[in-house]
Design brief:
The protein is 27% helix and 28% strand. It contains four helices and five strands; from the N terminus they run βαααββαββ. Strands 2-3-1-4-5 form a five-stranded antiparallel sheet, with helices on one face. A hairpin with a 6-residue loop joins strand 4 and strand 5. The longest helix has 19 residues. It is elongated, with a radius of gyration of 18 Å. The relative contact order is 0.26.
């Protein structure tokens, strides 16, 4: 398999997608943040010095999706048609699981955008409560599913390949 982001002289390049068909493409990514009970309780009770943590994390995740091509050199700027962010409370951890869905109709996928959104959202949670808990751990940032495009669909729940 040849590397698509290198030209014939081994120089970096952005892949040319101009010959690809527009298709509807959707990607869902997720990630977790675990923390102390004190930090979790402060977030749930909306009792932090920096304001509403989860609402801010949702906005940050959306901004992360929109800014992906500014952060990752070979990502194309995309005309996104939809972004959604959901946060699941995990009191048994304690912590949260953040999901980001990115959607468009275009010539390239939105996996990197969904993954970047998750990462930025989780980093925002960390930033907003680090005064309470510096031991928080961000983990399991992963693609859950994708649809559309030449490579077809992927769903982590149905994946039967080798795990890392």
């Amino acid at each position: 398999m040849s590397l698509t982001h290198l030209d014939d002289k081994n120089r970096p390049k952005m892949v040319d997608v101009s010959d690809k068909e527009d298709t509807t493409r959707v990607a869902i990514a997720s990630g977790k943040i675990s923390m102390s009970q004190e930090a979790f309780d402060a977030i749930i009770s909306n009792n932090t010095k920096k304001g509403p943590v989860l609402q801010t994390a949702v906005i940050a995740a959306i901004m992360g999706v929109k800014k992906t091509s500014d952060l990752i050199p070979m990502c194309h700027p995309l005309l996104l048609s939809g972004i959604n962010c959901d946060i699941e409370e995990l009191p048994e951890l304690p912590g949260f699981k953040l999901y980001v869905t990115a959607k468009l109709s275009g010539q390239t996928g939105v996996e990197m955008e969904a993954l970047t959104g998750v990462s930025v959202g989780l980093l925002t949670i960390y930033d907003m409560v680090k005064a309470i808990d510096k031991t928080m751990v961000i983990s399991e940032v992963q693609l859950e599913s994708k649809s559309g495009g030449k490579s077809g669909d992927f769903n982590r729940k149905n994946f039967k390949g080798d795990s890392v």
